[in-house]
Automatic annotation (TrEMBL):
Originating species: Scopulibacillus daqui
Keyword rRNA-binding recorded: no
Name this polypeptide is given: Zn-dependent membrane protease YugP
Record key words, sorted: Hydrolase, Membrane, Protease, Transmembrane, Transmembrane helix
Membrane-spanning segments: 6-22, 118-140, 146-166, 195-224
Keyword Ubl conjugation: no
One of the GO biological process terms: proteolysis
GO MF, any single term: peptidase activity
Length: 230
């Protein structure tokens, strides 16, 4: 791959996540200005869905930051950022419901969620050590070291790929819940879907960039291995 191709490649993998982040922030910003018809806050939405699904033991906590919302399976807590927790907007409704979607997945023993949890330590090891082995392999012309790095990085990529069905399923559950419970009206459903779709794009972008990087590393390993065998 020539220098020009490398430049184009790196521009692409930089633009993809930036574009995805812009989409989610634009959607969040737009629908953070639109109040939901029920007047329910994000915390109330989360509690309503949790109770409807019998998840009375799952707590809801306020956390600082913007879009720092998440579900903690170890403590059984849905954590909502301040704006989401107290706000009564379409964006807040969608985000709160999405995080509760993860709590429902946890309760239902959703297989991809379990797989993602199992992959966390491997992904952490892979993302932190892969570069060292790949760099050592390239600099020292050691195909074996590069291969180890590729395998490590592959574990991190697998985590990104498994994350996709987890996030899409949580969004699907969220949309169904807020519609079935009458938390949003028919005209609001479309807006909530836009927020959830934009958020999902960030995970798609991360997975796509990870796959592209893995393919690049595989090609580098093949080239290095061929040179060793010549």
């Amino acid at each position: 791959m020539g220098i020009g191709a490398y430049i184009i490649y790196f521009i692409i993998i930089m633009i993809i996540p930036i574009w995805a982040q812009a989409k989610v922030r634009n959607a969040y910003s737009k629908y953070s200005q639109v109040e939901n018809s029920t007047g329910m806050t994000g915390a109330q939405v989360a509690r309503r869905i949790l109770d409807h699904n019998g998840l009375y033991d799952v707590q809801i906590e306020e956390v600082p930051g913007t879009l720092s919302d998440h579900y903690d399976p170890s403590d059984k807590v849905v954590r909502l950022s301040t704006d989401i927790y107290h706000g009564n907007t379409i964006a807040g409704t969608a985000v709160a419901a999405h995080e509760v979607g993860h709590a429902i997945q946890d309760d239902k023993d959703y297989a991809p969620l379990r797989m993602r949890h199992a992959l966390v330590p491997l992904a952490n090891i892979g993302s932190s050590l892969s570069w060292l082995f790949i760099l050592a392999g390239m600099l020292l012309h050691l195909a074996g070291a590069a291969l180890i790095g590729v395998i490590f990085f592959g574990m991190a990529v697998l985590f990104q790929i498994v994350t996709l069905p987890v996030e899409f399923n949580a969004s699907s559950r969220a949309l169904n819940q807020i519609v079935d419970l009458g938390i949003v009206q028919s005209d609001e459903k479309r807006h909530a879907r836009k927020v959830l779709t934009a958020a999902a794009l960030t995970y798609v972008a991360a997975a796509l960039v990870a796959v592209l990087e893995l393919l690049r590393f595989i090609l580098m390993f093949i080239g290095l291995n061929n040179n060793e065998n010549d």
